[in-house]
Design goal:
The complex is a heterodimer.
Chain A (H helix, E strand, L loop, with lengths): L5 E7 L2 E10 L4 H10 L7 E12 L1 H16 L3 E5 L3 H9 L8 E2 L6 H4 L1
Parallel strand pairs in A: 2-3, 3-4, 4-5
Antiparallel strand pairs in A: 1-2
Helix pairs in contact in A: 1-2
Chain B lengths: L1 H29 L2 H32 L3 E6 L4 E4 L1 H7 L3 H4 L11 H18 L1 E10 L5 E12 L5 E10 L1 H55 L12 E7 L9 E7 L5 E8 L3 H21 L3 H15 L8 E11 L2 E9 L4 E4 L5 E4 L17 E6 L4 E5 L1 H4 L11 H11 L4 H15 L7 E7 L11
Antiparallel strand pairs in B: 1-2, 1-5, 3-4, 4-5, 6-15, 7-8, 8-9, 9-10, 10-13, 11-12, 11-14, 14-15
Helix pairs in contact in B: 1-2, 7-8
The chains are: A alpha/beta, B alpha+beta.
């Protein structure tokens, strides 16, 4: 029943794109936290987290996203979420996190204006 | 036994010789004349050489037989001994013959046995065989042997001397010792295995009782995170439910209902992110911080501010801890109840009205508690008229996996509430408890429910 979490990264002109696919929950949040330590961010970089294929995100998953935000901030970088699924967006709004996690509509919108 | 072999040795050899001759006879019948003459000469020479060899071998066999020979007079003194036995014992012939008795060659124990059993039996039966004894060699080491003795009698039937054969039993003794050692080792291994099994069993029992003790401790701690039971409040009905997803994991959900002053009541319900003891510690901190905060303010937003400061300062490092909380006050006004709510990132409260309408009570802008240094918590208000119910819940309910696949949601909950309304606090909690049970294993998170209702003037006869 549980679908696993898959993480993929690729460089963007603005920084790094991190795509999450599957379920971000109590069982898989540790994966995201571990992956964050392997991502090298320079000051001014933007970590774009693509949630197009995120099937589910629970409170622990949200906590991991907050940890990602804190991680980017400590490196002088910034974070943005793109293609947030409706349900996750609703949770983020309930938690008030849309105030602290910038949300952009689609991942493709990111590279185009900057190139 | 060996004596017999020795005696019959020549006979066997003679038999062999006759067989040999017979073989030649067969050859003659087949062979030609010339071959016959030469063959006879060769046969005679061979026979002569063979018998010479035989005559030699009787004495040589005695002296160098693969066993020891010993002849003693009837008083036990050694009269004759072969080289093999002398070699084994390390004595010269002159040291023994005419100087020592057979018993002198035995160990102390052997001497006793010789005197009490060996000699009397030999005297009685004329022979004794296969007795295990130990001989003492010249350099005082022990030589395990098997001894067979026979009394030789004269023509008048009088005993003349005793013939004794001695077999070297070192190999056999070593083998026996090896068997004995192997058996002892097997017994020891068996005993050790048994001991290990018993120890494992003791360890298992200890671990089991330790586990039981730990579960008991956790159950007590978990219970301490919840109010033992809701207070009875005049003009108000309250009901609550708590579901623990895992008996081994301390829960992160919490709620409370308590008096603020003579005319007001405070309440809160929330969910600490994460599971396990760390989450439970945050739950405890959260509950007592909120209770204390409400002693100094009747404004739920201010209480959440206090909680936010406590969590933000306490958990700033690499292990940030947050919770979602909905906190409020309830104040009776005539036959209505005034409710003020503030939410810190918590799902909105649900209203089930007496007129069968249902609605979420939005508390926009409330941020997860403990994440930012200065969040802005806003409040919302509502009035509970007779027959109205306010429901607070944690996301264990709205995130449960349903049997047919998709997760339960706030929309599902809203639809369920519409079928329920109007319902008082107890009816609402009872119905939702049944709903939660229907999720079975799909309810994979702790879930807390708290309902507060304004009872109808003429209680109950509504639909259930």
């Amino acid at each position: 029943m549980t679908t696993e979490l898959t993480l993929t990264t690729r460089p963007l002109p603005t920084g790094i794109l991190l795509a999450l696919a599957g379920e971000l929950d109590h069982d898989s949040a540790g994966q995201l936290r571990t992956a964050l330590h392997t991502i090298t961010l320079q000051p001014g970089d933007l970590l774009t987290v693509d949630l197009t294929d995120l099937a589910y995100c629970d409170s622990t998953g949200i906590t991991a996203l907050i940890a990602a935000r804190n991680h980017t901030h400590t490196h002088g970088a910034d974070i943005t979420l793109t293609a947030v699924p409706t349900n996750t967006l609703r949770i983020l709004r309930v938690l008030g996190l849309d105030q602290v996690l910038p949300i952009h509509p689609a991942p493709e919108a990111e590279p185009d204006p900057s190139t | 036994m060996m004596c017999e072999t020795t005696d019959s040795g020549p006979e066997q050899d003679i038999d062999a010789d006759s067989t040999h001759a017979g073989g030649k006879a067969g050859g003659e019948a087949e062979g030609d004349a010339e071959g016959e003459a030469g063959g006879e000469d060769a046969d005679e020479a061979e026979l002569a050489q063979f018998s010479a060899l035989l005559e030699d071998s009787a004495e040589d066999l005695y002296e160098h037989a693969p066993c020891g020979y010993l002849s003693t007079l009837m008083d036990g003194s050694i009269a004759k001994i072969n080289t093999t036995l002398l070699h084994w014992l390390g004595y010269r012939r002159t040291q023994l013959v005419g100087h020592k008795r057979f018993a002198d060659l035995l160990t102390v124990g052997g001497k006793l046995y010789h005197e009490t059993h060996f000699a009397p039996l030999l005297a009685m039966q004329g022979q004794i065989s296969g007795i295990a004894l130990e001989l003492r060699t010249a350099d005082d080491t022990r030589l395990p042997v098997l001894v067979t003795s026979q009394v030789k009698t004269g023509s008048d039937g009088q005993p003349l001397l005793i013939r004794t054969t001695v077999f070297d039993a070192r190999d056999r003794r070593a083998y026996e010792n090896e068997l004995l050692r192997a058996r002892k080792e097997a017994e020891k291994a068996g005993a050790e295995a048994e001991q290990a099994r018993a120890e494992a069993e003791r360890a298992r029992q200890a671990a089991e009782s330790e586990h039981a003790r730990l579960r008991q401790v956790m159950a007590i701690l978990q219970k301490s995170l919840l109010p033992p039971e809701l207070p009875q409040i005049p003009g108000m009905q309250a009901a609550a439910y708590y579901h623990t997803a895992s008996a081994d994991q301390l829960g992160g959900d919490f709620y409370d209902l308590f008096p603020l002053n003579q005319s007001q009541w405070g309440f809160f319900l929330g969910d600490v992110c994460g599971k396990g003891p760390q989450a439970a510690a945050v739950t405890s901190l959260t509950r007592y911080t909120l209770r204390t905060a409400f002693q100094h303010t009747t404004d739920p937003a201010t209480a959440l501010d206090t909680l936010n400061t406590a969590l933000y300062e306490r958990y700033t490092g690499t292990d940030p801890r947050y919770c979602t909380t909905i906190a409020g006050t309830i104040t009776p006004h005539g036959d209505t109840l005034h409710v003020t709510l503030a939410s810190g990132g918590h799902p909105p409260a649900l209203l089930l009205r007496a007129d069968r309408t249902t609605a979420f009570l939005p508390t926009p802008g409330g941020l997860l508690v403990g994440i930012m240094p200065h969040p802005h918590f806003t409040t919302a208000t509502t009035t509970l008229n007779p027959g109205d119910t306010l429901l607070l819940y944690t996301d264990g309910l709205t995130e449960a996996r349903t049997a047919n696949g998709p997760r339960y949601s706030e929309d599902h909950l809203h639809a369920f509430a519409r079928t329920l309304a109007p319902a008082d606090a107890r009816q609402t909690i009872t119905a939702l408890t049944r709903l939660l049970e229907s999720f079975g294993t799909g309810l994979d998170d702790d879930t807390a429910l708290l309902a507060l209702s304004n009872p109808t003037a003429h209680t109950d006869p509504e639909d259930a």
